[in-house]
UniProtKB/TrEMBL annotation:
The chain crosses the membrane at residues 193-209, 229-250, 278-297, 303-327, 406-429, 435-459, 519-538, 544-563. The keyword Zinc does not apply. Keywords: Coiled coil, Membrane, Transmembrane, Transmembrane helix. Residues 330-387 form a coiled coil. This is Coiled-coil protein.
């Protein structure tokens, strides 16, 4: 609705005006019990703030996933107010993203948003019905909390084990059939591209062998047998993806939904263009070029050389797109950092003013009110610092990934230029020299492809390991605060925070081990396929060679399935055990806390500690894409 509640999206609850804070509470009061599908926020204003909304939504959603109700009973009244403000603001951000995605018909994200909203409401109810610092909980509130918990449990009894994988895939296809279709096509195209470089390298090697070398002539014929299929795929896949993206761009711009009509047409176009521009440019140009190269610019002589020149030009375009993407992402990050910096400065100024007023205030009640407000401001400043640290951490690895893509685009352009003797026209060098240069260039193209995939996997491993290290450092800081703290309730909060940080550190450690296992398997498979194909085609009869290749393919599939069975899962949110706490409090040591956590986790683990069921743990850190279709990355190049 265009005339709905209008609230500026800022980095935290406290930096909003009093009127905006009241509007955020009003939204929660109206929306969380509502049975209708009414969209209560101003859609036009939301659309203009989508970049800030997505960044804040991601951060606060992750914070919601780690909000532990076991600590609610140890919070002071002031802490409960601060936490409720944060949860209410989280609800506002979740609702705003839900409304924006609903308006723009991104139906595949709505279930995830709905689950997050339900969890947020549940946490707020748990906070409201939890007693304060050991006070007895009223009977009615305790009954309401238990009924709510029982209702949540009953919803899933008998359902969680029934064809979960099939249901997930079916819902994914029904809710997001275009996005799923494009994802499948991208995976097929990536496999095609791998074979382009791997098969091209084998073809140049076969060319250098004598004609009477074992089954060389037959092997060459068999190697080129799939060429017509991959040739048609080289432009059909790009045209299909381009058509889907162009249709969605046209649909949202000129035939919007009823709610989407509140957003001006030019803004709708810019939104869709920003989401799809790299995919549209990549697929449209590569689709045309691959079709021309497949039908006309191929073979030996000047036509083949012209096709190679066109391909080099398009690889240069990929390098330009990679540079553009890097600059754009850097600008987005700097804009986000500038917004956080402004809000930090505003909060710091208000904190200084409140501290001065508190120091000079004589009225006891007024002094208490100022102290409470000062504590809320300081808590918000801590949240902003945490947000800034998290954003810088994420940008660090995103930047490395973009640089890896850029280096791949540059390296591939140079390697392909060497392979096709781009720098030397066909008549300028003797055939033997051209053949050697071609083998070197083809090998470089293949090695670059495998190395880039390996670096991408290594970055994931490094990110998980650093996350584990950071959580461990957080644990040590909390332990230092625990030893200095005298308030028993604050000590219990710190104890639960340490357990949560240790659990996250352990999860990231196991995630790094899992990612490393997948990386090693992937690199070995990618590196061994060409030698296996070479041996099967050159030294074996066709029937036996195909059987060997089929066995190798089956082994690749089976090893992937086996490794995926050991994907690590998050622990349940830690609960409070009085006996364990007493033992830890008497001798505060992280080793003891780790042993306690390991005993709790061991019940749910399988082989090597990698398999950990977590059906009752709600982790909301994963953020679905805010676009209908994923942007095509730099690896998604085309070559016929």
């Amino acid at each position: 609705m265009s005339g709905g509640i209008s609230i500026a999206i800022k980095t935290s609850f406290e930096v909003h005006t009093k009127e905006e804070q009241e509007s955020i509470y009003l939204l929660y009061a109206e929306a969380h019990h509502a049975q209708d599908a009414l969209l209560r926020l101003n859609t036009k204003k939301l659309a203009k703030q989508r970049a800030a909304l997505l960044a804040l939504h991601t951060f606060y959603k992750e914070e919601l996933g780690t909000t532990n109700p076991a600590s609610f009973g140890f919070l002071t009244p002031e802490q409960k107010i601060r936490l409720k403000n944060k949860l209410i603001y989280t609800y506002y951000l979740l609702y705003a993203q839900y409304q924006l995605d609903s308006t723009e018909k991104r139906g595949y994200t709505l279930k995830d948003h709905g689950d997050a909203l339900a969890l947020c409401v549940q946490r707020i109810k748990e906070l409201d019905t939890t007693g304060v610092c050991g006070q007895a909980t009223p009977f009615e509130d305790d009954l309401e909390a238990n009924i709510a918990l029982a209702t949540q449990c009953l919803k899933f009894i008998g359902l969680t084990q029934i064809a979960s994988w099939f249901v997930e895939k079916f819902e994914q296809f029904m809710d997001n059939h275009t996005g799923t279709l494009v994802k499948w096509m991208t995976e097929v195209n990536n496999s095609r591209l791998y074979w382009v470089w791997g098969g091209g390298m084998l073809d140049t090697i076969f060319t250098m062998l004598p004609d009477d070398f074992y089954n060389k002539l037959e092997a060459q014929a068999n190697l080129t047998a799939p060429s017509p299929i991959t040739g048609y795929m080289s432009w059909v896949l790009y045209y299909t993806r381009f058509g889907i993206n162009l249709f969605l761009l046209w649909k949202h711009t000129f035939h919007p939904s009823k709610e989407e009509c509140h957003i001006p047409r030019w803004e709708r176009f810019l939104t869709q263009w920003n989401q799809r521009k790299f995919a549209l440019l990549n697929d449209s140009i590569w689709g045309v070029a691959n079709m021309v190269c497949f039908f006309w610019l191929n073979g030996g002589g000047m036509l083949g050389y012209a096709g190679n020149v066109v391909t080099v030009a398009l690889l240069l375009m990929d390098l330009a797109l990679a540079t553009w993407r890097f600059c754009e992402e850097a600008t987005k990050h700097n804009t986000k950092m500038e917004a956080i910096r402004r809000d930090k400065e505003k909060l710091a100024s208000e904190i200084a003013s409140l501290a001065f007023a508190l120091e000079n205030e004589l009225n006891v009640f007024k002094k208490q009110e100022l102290a409470a407000k000062l504590a809320r401001m300081e808590n918000e400043l801590t949240t902003l610092n945490k947000m800034e640290t998290k954003a810088n951490f994420e940008w660090k690895y995103k930047k490395y990934s973009l640089m890896n893509d850029w280096a791949y685009a540059l390296g591939l352009m140079v390697a392909f230029s060497i392979m096709c003797c781009f720098f030397f026209p066909p008549a300028a060098i003797v055939p033997a020299t051209a053949m050697i240069i071609g083998v070197v260039g083809a090998a470089l193209c293949f090695v670059l492809t495998v190395a880039t995939a390996a670096v991408t996997g290594a970055l994931e491993v490094a990110k998980s390991r650093e996350s584990s290290k950071l959580e461990r450092e957080t644990c040590e800081r909390l332990l230092g605060a625990f030893k200095k703290e005298t308030d028993p309730n604050l000590k219990k909060q710190l104890y639960l925070d340490m357990k949560l940080a240790l659990a996250e550190s352990d999860y990231q450690q196991r995630a790094a081990q899992f990612q490393m296992a997948k990386l090693v398997r992937s690199v070995l498979i990618d590196a061994l396929i060409p030698p296996l194909v070479f041996v099967s085609l050159i030294f074996m009869p066709l029937g036996i060679g195909l059987a060997v290749l089929a066995a190798g393919f089956a082994l690749a599939v089976i090893t992937n399935a086996i490794i995926n069975r050991f994907e690590p899962k998050h622990e349940k949110l830690p609960y409070f055990n009085e006996a364990d706490y007493a033992a830890f409090a008497s001798n505060p040591d992280l080793k003891q806390l780790e042993n306690t956590a390991a005993k709790e986790a061991k019940k749910g683990r399988n082989l090597f500690g990698l398999m950990k069921p977590s059906e009752d743990y709600t982790k909301l850190a994963e953020e679905p894409s805010n676009a209908d279709l994923a942007v095509i990355n730099t690896h998604d190049l085309g070559f016929c």
